[in-house]
Specification:
Layout: H1 3-8, H2 15-23, E1 27-29, E2 32-33, E3 46-48, E4 51-52, E5 61-66, H3 82-86, E6 93-94, E7 103-109, H4 112-119, E8 127-133, H5 139-147, E9 150-153, E10 158-161, E11 166-171, E12 174-179, H6 186-192, E13 198-206, E14 209-210, E15 219-221, H7 224-234
Parallel strand pairs: 7-13
Antiparallel strand pairs: 1-2, 1-3, 3-4, 5-7, 5-15, 6-7, 8-12, 8-13, 9-10, 11-12, 13-14
Length: about 240
């Protein structure tokens, strides 16, 4: 694992903060000054400012029913950032993305190990969304969305075919979609490929977690059973 990722997995620092610590030569690995891009493992002795790096033992796991207008970032200078919105006493960060114009379920935690496992694409963790679009949904649209959509990836400057997924029509302009991947603004880009515009997008489920009993803008701690179920699925 890269050094910055290892440091951030403790839940004490973001990856950007870890990079700054490494650049400032405040990190040592087995007594030697750490460098950007360095690979480390759990057996290595990692110190920050001469003190051993320790895991955050006060692990927090919460789910938020995010309203639109809130940005999923830990950058506190950004107005409407999710960290200030939740205002938790512990330093927590969101797992994955839910863009500013979207709403619904998002998991926040300070357990970096859980974050890495959930976001690992090979785990195929399913997420369900309810989507409303600007025009009548056709059977051909449902089939094309289900079979995989060719969308442009600006990061890699290439086109990507999305994974096959389950799409179910709810009414003339609303459908439910279940994804096992998390490309940036994926659903909006998939719809756009067929000249549909997303008017409302709400995530209603991640793995076994749902929004049941959770009003928009509210959050709650995960139960011990929910935490155990997540860890079992990721093991």
């Amino acid at each position: 694992m890269r050094l910055n990722k290892f440091i951030s997995s403790t839940g004490l620092y973001s990856r950007r903060q870890a990079d700054e610590l490494i650049k400032d030569k405040r990190v040592s690995v087995n007594g030697e000054t750490g460098i950007i891009g360095q690979d480390v493992n759990e057996d290595d002795k990692i110190d920050i400012d001469g003190k051993p790096l320790k895991l955050n033992e006060n692990n927090v796991y919460i789910i938020l029913n995010k309203p639109t207008g809130i940005t999923c970032t830990t950058e506190r200078h950004i107005e409407g950032n999710i960290v200030d919105f939740v205002n938790h006493t512990e330093r927590i960060f969101p797992v994955g993305r839910l863009d500013k114009d979207s709403e619904g379920l998002i998991l926040l935690t300070n357990d970096g190990d859980i974050v890495n496992k959930i976001l690992r694409e090979g785990n195929n963790n399913k997420k369900e969304y309810i989507v409303t679009v600007n025009k009548i949904i056709t059977s051909s649209f449902i089939k094309a969305m289900s079979d995989g959509v060719k969308i442009y990836n600006p990061v890699k400057n290439e086109y990507t075919i999305t994974k096959k997924c389950e799409v179910v029509k709810i009414n003339d302009r609303t459908f439910k979609i279940t994804l096992s991947q998390g490309l940036n603004r994926q659903i909006r880009r998939m719809c756009s490929a067929f000249e549909y515009k997303v008017l409302n997008l709400k995530r209603i489920k991640i793995m076994d977690l749902t929004l049941e009993g959770l009003d928009t803008g509210k959050w709650r701690n995960l139960t011990a059973e929910e935490i155990e179920n997540i860890k079992n699925k990721l093991s």
